[in-house]
Sequence to fold (459 residues):
Amino acid sequence: MQTFQTKAFDLEQSLQEVNERYQQEKQKRKILHNSLVELRGNIRVHCRIRPLLPFDIASGHTASQDRHKKLSEEVAHVINEETVLVKCSRPGHTLVSKTFQFDRVYSAAESQDVVFADVAPLLTSLLDGYNVCIMAYGQTGSGKTYTMLGPQSEDEVTLSIKDEPELGVIPRATEEVFRLISEKPPGSHWVEVSVVEVYNNEIFDLLAKDGCGTVFGIKRDVVTTKEGKSDVPLLTYETVENAVEFLQLVDRCLQLRVKHPTLVHAHSSRSHLVVTLTITTKAVSADSFAPPWADEQSSQRRSKELFCTFPQQMKDDKLIFPSRASSPVQFQSVEKLKHIKTKLQLVDLAGSECVGMSGVTGTALRETSFINRSLSALSDVLGALAEQRSHVPYRNSKLTHLLQDSIGGDAKLLVMLCVSPCQKYLTESLQSLGFGTRARQVQRGQFKKRNPPVSSKSK
Ligand SMILES: Nc1ncnc2c1ncn2[C@@H]1O[C@H](COP(=O)(O)OP(=O)(O)OP(=O)(O)O)[C@@H](O)[C@H]1O
Fold:
């Protein structure tokens, strides 16, 4: 008995050691994988399987009990932190299991906290001088808005800091950005926000106001600048000084976002939402060279708005330089000040949709057609990038044209794939997983870092 007990004890100890070693190796592997992603300029893809929800089970048609049960069976399963397994059973076909690998896979039980924990390091990169884009992709009702914003109430769209455990990536990311900024010297960073929706292949500026200060979506266009970057002339930017101000602003815009009930999802978003935070870092330069990306959007800012909203230190700068409208290059060459801009783009795409299932007609059908076309344009762009084709068809859709710099440029791009777990949406889920797999194949070269601010030693 004693011999067995000693053996059991030894075995337990060695198991514990193996476990510890496994965790260490896993951590090392993760670090190496991240370095490889950085070197290749890969698009990171995380996949989130949402829980089975009452509307997955509720009957939308007169299917028999058995068929109904089958349709709401879970077919997408999380195997481990990097693997999804989908059991594909189609009438008349044998059961086939397909596996998909991603940089991170979340099961239905994993909280908004866990999802955000993997996003947070990208925000440190943002303040280190990299552009970052986080984009939710998936079928209608698969959890994109939940992941990006948080749960939406039945009759109104509200974002509140009070719902903290349920908050999605957008409010959490903003809080984190402001937390990181608070560790920097006061007045050295400031944040401007723009919010647009792409609806029926048109871009709407959701922060634009009329003469009476009422907010409404004004149509804007997207153009390619001389430097080959995409730009939206006359887009409204508002300066925000904390996460609460930001949430109020985005809340206002969400009221304007087009929604439409479908058979699949009662609160289906009918547009792609793009929230952009532009972080300007003030830094003293050793030389008077102004990089092309510095202040590239300055001309679009209304000088009055800038003077009213900038931190005191910036207003003092204005006193040194009589004209805020003078070109940024002039401005910088005299004082040797550099303004480094980095962009955080947060995108909640509209969901791909099978018309037969969503049962849409009329206006909603037209919307679906635009949504599906723009998502297919996005897929074509990724295909062209993955195959390193000389021509990438960004301009085939306003969505891809708008996001051109994030998708094909030097931004760190994270695609958050959202997947419904049940049999009913098998085709759409396979399509989304295929999209994610394709995105992972894109290699864009090493990410470009904007010049580090002099104040970075205070990090
Ligand atoms: N991980 C999750 N945990 C709990 N509920 C979730 C989760 N993901 C999604 N849901 C719920 O599922 C429903 C659909 O989610 P959501 O609105 O995010 O879908 P969507 O992909 O944005 O759809 P659409 O493209 O049609 O706008 C919502 O009621 C949401 O609260």
